[in-house]
Target: Glycerol-3-phosphate dehydrogenase [NAD(P)+]
Amino acid sequence: MSIVSKENRIGIIGSGSWATALAKILTDNGQHIHWWIRNEETIRHMQQRHHNKHYLTSVYFDTSLLSLSSDVNAVVAACDEIVLAVPSAFLTDVLDQLPSSALEGKKVISAIKGLVPGNNQLINEYLEERFQLPPAHYFTITGPCHAEEVANEKLSYLTFSGVHQEAAQAIADKFTGSYLQTIVNTDMIGVQLAAVMKNIYALGAGIAHGLEYGDNFLSVYITNCFREMQAFLEQYEAQKAEQRGSEPMVHNYSASAYLGDLLVTCYSLHSRNRTFGNMIGKGYSVKAAQLELNMIAEGYYASKCMYEMNKQIGAVMPVAQAVYAILWQQVHPSEAFLSLEKGFI
Ligand SMILES: NC(=O)c1ccc[n+]([C@@H]2O[C@H](COP(=O)([O-])OP(=O)(O)OC[C@H]3O[C@@H](n4cnc5c(N)ncnc54)[C@H](O)[C@@H]3O)[C@@H](O)[C@H]2O)c1
Ligand SMILES: O=P(O)(O)OC[C@H](O)CO
Model:
């Protein structure tokens, strides 16, 4: 266990499963954290009973390492490094409470796997526009990693990305511990987009399971999703490179943040997206599946964002298109999957 000094003022925004898992990782390393929790009752429970009453309830905290607050301004003001771990759908609601100067001189580490709904921006694009956050002060945490396995201290890997490798490494070092290995790269944009897409594909994997397709189909489905993910990223990079007048960024698709996260989210029974999709495949409405899950499946929002974004990019994405049609255009799941079956290679 690495012991980190109290002078590293780090804050976590959010109190769902992932925020709670990240809080565990940091406090297990002896790190003091400032933690924004939306609900006062959850804060009181955490102070009295030392755990989050709603998420990862088996994780107990040394509360002397926690400064809890429902005031997001106070948490951000108290910290130099801020970890964002709210679902993408609520990000702007939460950060709209901050003045535009709130992130001046601070580093922001996004653990969110989603785009900003409405304008389909990457999280760094939104932070740059809204808070003038410079790219060098932005980092991402991607997977593959489920909060539930962190809670059980099962060996897991997180990927830290930033413009500068050394700065990303310094952030990653705070999280590295006995059950948590870290991987560091400078591929900040590619890993974010891959994380958004794998949620859509995992939701589709759940739909396939709900429709009673088997493991043979699933392996072909995931292979085609992986190809589709690469096709989108290649086309996205080509367009961005043309706009910048520079060479396109090259992604390492076989890295864990790409293939690994796609696999774990499609296969794991912990996956919110797969579970949500399974219910849709079994005939639940979107509303009923949301109520039943009681957690956030990012792929639902992502399918709409990617559909909108791909109007500019123009990649061929039959799987993402089918998931969008099922969730947002009331196309019957079996009909959408029947047309997918024919096109797989
Ligand atoms: N759970 C994981 O294993 C995991 C792993 C990696 C990344 N992530 C990412 O972390 C982010 C958070 O996901 P999660 O799994 O912690 O979600 P979750 O479903 O466990 O929790 C949902 C959170 O949203 C909050 N919430 C609900 N309504 C809200 C509102 N109106 N305003 C603000 N907050 C509201 C809830 O209080 C709760 O804290 C997502 O982008 C997800 O993709 C999750
Ligand atoms: O539970 P899911 O489906 O949101 O996926 C969680 C993580 O992103 C897996 O790395």
Observations:
- Strands lie at 10-13, 33-36, 66-69, 81-84, 107-110, 138-142, 156-162, 180-185.
